[in-house]
Amino acid sequence: MQTPAQAVLCLAFLVLAACVSPLQRDLDSILQPPELQGVRWGLLVTDMQGREIAALNPDQRFLPASNTKLFTTAAVYRWQDDFALMAPRLATHVTLEDAGEAAPPTLVLHGRGDPALSDAPDCETSCLAHLADAVAASGLTHITRVIGDDTWFPHDRWPPGWSWEDLQADDGTAVSALTLNDNALTLSVTPAATEGDPAIVAWADGAAAYAILNETITAASETDDFVIARPPGADTVRVFGHVPPGSPARSYRLGVDNPAALAARRFSALLAARGLTVDAPATARHRTPGLAGADAAALTALEAGSAPLASLPSLSFPDALAAVSKDSQNLYAELLLRHLGHLSEDGAAGAGLTRVTALLEEAGAPANGHDLFDGSGLSVYNRVSPRTIVTLLRHAAAQDWGDDWRATFPVGGRDGSLRHRFRGTILEARIVAKTGTLKGTNALSGYLITASGQTLVFALIANERPLVVPSVIPFMDAALVRIAEGS
Question: Fewer Cβ atoms within 10 Å of its own Cβ: the N or the C terminal residue of the chain?
Answer without folding.
Answer: N
